[in-house]
């Protein structure tokens, strides 16, 4: 065989190899879990009162688009928070889990809004003693009439409708105002029930039976169908790795930290989460909230 023919044959074989490799990469790019690069588990931490959803939304969206992340763990240590903020995170988790598994890891407290953002995940893992539940809506409006009277403060209000100044601090609510706020609270409560029902595939009637605002343990949540298994953060990571098809030891990544930072931050801040939540809750806005207010900090 002449040198020209050998060269042509070599070029032809090389072209075929390149074409096959290109087709393989194209097929891999169309799968939800790339086989060559999917060895990472993204960790998103939601801690304290849920007020600004933007950082969580950004992280969830980032991991949805990142082909190197095979699954996501949502670490929740929160007593809940704003209704709108909780609903935005709920919706983004629904979008993410269509692409890759999302496992919720409940910490010390995952109540009210903390539960709300956990239930849409592919799987939910809780500690036996996790404080969860508190399904309901709370709307707190301070009344300072006696204080204002004592120091001589009078509010002058010009409004366009009878209900426009609802929540004025210098007077108690009127019957009409209280009825309006109760209707609002009931509407948002029904949304909570519906979303838990849909996410966990539990009939609304069964959810309503235990959705009285009371809290219960992770052990009880497992029996009610709100949780899939009991375990800690690493159990959630292992479950996410299994669901995401990760081979070997998964690499944990977060929007801000390396592997050591992810675990270190969880360990450092775990004990302070409830105190932080209480402080943030005290300064939260007076709007309706999916929020659990614990009576004490001890066992």
Sheet with most strands: 8 strands, mixed
Helix share, percent: 40-55%
CATH superfamily of the domain at 32-138 and 203-291: 2-enoyl-CoA Hydratase, Chain A, domain 1
Structural class: alpha/beta
CATH architecture of the domain at 32-138 and 203-291: Alpha-Beta Complex
- What is the level 1 CATH name of the domain at 32-138 and 203-291? Alpha Beta
Would you tell me which CATH topology of the domain at 32-138 and 203-291 applies? 2-enoyl-CoA Hydratase, Chain A, domain 1
How much β-strand is present in the residues?
Answer: 15-25%
Broad shape: elongated
State the distance separating the first and last CA atoms. 86 Å
Mean pLDDT value: 81
Low confidence ranges: 7-11, 18-36, 271-275, 281-285
Oligomeric state of this protein: single chain
Describe, in plain words, how this protein is organized in 3D.
- With 299 residues, the chain is an alpha/beta fold.
- It has a domain at 32-138 and 203-291: 2-enoyl-CoA Hydratase, Chain A, domain 1 (Alpha-Beta Complex).
- Helix content is 46%, strand content 16%.
- It is built from eleven helices and ten strands.
- The strands form two sheets. Strands 1, 2, 4, 5, 6, 7, 8 and 9 form an eight-stranded mixed beta sheet that branches.
- α2 packs parallel to α3.
- The model is unreliable at 7-11, 18-36, 271-275 and 281-285 (pLDDT under 50).
Spell out the blueprint of helices and strands.
Elements: H1 3-29, E1 40-47, H2 54-65, E2 69-78, E3 80-82, H3 83-97, E4 102-111, H4 113-116, E5 123-126, E6 131-133, H5 145-151, H6 175-200, H7 204-210, E7 215-217, H8 218-224, E8 229-230, H9 233-243, E9 251-253, H10 259-269, H11 273-283, E10 289-291
Helix pairs in contact: 2-3
